[in-house]
Amino acid sequence: MSEDPRTPGSLPRGQNNPQRCPYGLYAEQLSGTAFTAPRGENQKSWLYRIRPSVIHGIFKKVDQNRITINWNERPPNPNQIRWRPFPLPSTNVDFVEGIYTVCGAGDPRLRVGLAIHIYLANTSMKNKAFYNSDGDFLIVPQLGTLDIKTEFGRLIVEPNEICVIPQGIKFSVDLNGASRGYILEVFGSHFSLPELGPIGANGLAYAKHFEYPTARYEEIEEKYMIFTKYQGSLFAALQSHSPFDVVAWQGNYAPYKYNLERFMTINTVSYDHCDPSIFTVLTCQSQKPGTALADFVIFPPRWAVAEHTFRPPYYHRNCMSEFMGLIQGGYEAKEDGFLPGGASLHSIMTPHGPDSVCFDSASSADLKPTKIAIGDMAFMFESCMGLSLTEWGEVSCSAIDEDYNKCWQDLKKNFDMMKL
Ligand SMILES: O=C(O)Cc1cc(O)ccc1O
Ligand SMILES: [Fe+2]
């Protein structure tokens, strides 16, 4: 619930849809779930705005090949994939012009699936707004601050913070220089906090630490270009006023941000390695109980105290897809090659795990309590879907590390049947 402080009393009292709204505003509902979704999942907001959203010109398709849902651009590739830091643009590029789809699966028309994008930009969006008709964006900035104007108010999101802009909500991004980051897009359902089970009522990400914007309208009678991603293609329509004209809003469907440093990390205090689901910040559930269409998981700074344990991530084959990125610092399973602004993809059943340097050092490390470096922040998008790489992701991004697979090849045979 939020009112622009310049217009007190702008939220109607006692009802959503008065015959005449305060200050001559228009009432508009934004539905984020079906009208009839169960109460616990139902999401909607009421916006009180200077003009209703419907006053816009005709949408025309934008000619571009960066954003896609064509998962057949490349043949399937079961190899381990690693990207060096994605190169920043050398010309002026704004946030929407700088989004490139790397991989994904499913179809926004069926409301099932996801896409992973990288943004590489350096210029503010001028009289432009974007909304995603296909699903929610979870944005992970790695370089540069995102100053995001949304219909619901302003969100300033820095590296080590994330934000979620749900389906349909218009936003515009101002940048203060070179900017790079990751976007997890989910089609068809929304992000929620994971269940805590035996952890109890406290732990992981606290609901109270999610920050929502305050209504802030602008009254600008100038040409605005409204972009939307609709069924995987980009469209643009012109209108003669700012879409950021919401004076007040109420409801539970709104953008938000979260500072990853607030995460209350839980892990072993005895022995062995917890599965990385213990670090889930947000989850977007599939239809299958307990199985995520996409989890957003972080690897935050923490104490490692496990006794008689190989502490780094175990060697692994997974029925899920694992896409990883690095915001800053390093990652415990890879001594080098996995760099801030880069990424890796370990697809369904593709073996992965610590590189040989990491294996050797962790197998003989002195197991005193150690702090996994302050400032490290790796993350994972984990999905039950098999992901297809795009042409950009596999070829034209020019960031593929062709030597990635070599990092495991000199893992030695240590087996000795005489030595227990
Ligand atoms: O590095 C990875 O692949 C992610 C990962 C981390 C971990 O601690 C355990 C399993 C796992 O897949
Ligand atoms: Fe894994």
UniProtKB/TrEMBL annotation:
Signal sequence segment: none
Domain Homogentisate 1,2-dioxygenase N-terminal: 4-260
Active-site annotation: H273
Uppermost EC category: oxidoreductase
Binding site for Fe cation: H316, E322, Y331, H352
Record-level Gene Ontology MF annotations: homogentisate 1,2-dioxygenase activity; metal ion binding
Coiled-coil residue windows: none
Organismal lineage: Eukaryota, Metazoa, Ecdysozoa, Arthropoda, Hexapoda
One Pfam family of this chain: HgmA_C
Family, per entry: Belongs to the homogentisate dioxygenase family.
A biological process from GO: L-tyrosine catabolic process
Record protein name field: Homogentisate 1,2-dioxygenase
EC numbers, comma separated: 1.13.11.5
Biochemical pathway: Amino-acid degradation; L-phenylalanine degradation; acetoacetate and fumarate from L-phenylalanine: step 4/6
Cofactor(s) listed: Fe cation
Residues binding homogentisate, per UniProt: H352
InterPro entries in alphabetical order: HgmA_C (IPR046451), HgmA_N (IPR046452), Homogentis_dOase (IPR005708), RmlC-like_jellyroll (IPR014710), RmlC_Cupin_sf (IPR011051)
Recorded catalytic activity of this chain's protein: homogentisate + O2 = 4-maleylacetoacetate + H(+)
Keywords attached to this entry: Dioxygenase, Iron, Metal-binding, Oxidoreductase, Phenylalanine catabolism, Tyrosine catabolism
A cellular component annotation (GO) from this entry: cytoplasm
Ranges where the Homogentisate 1,2-dioxygenase C-terminal domain occurs: 262-415
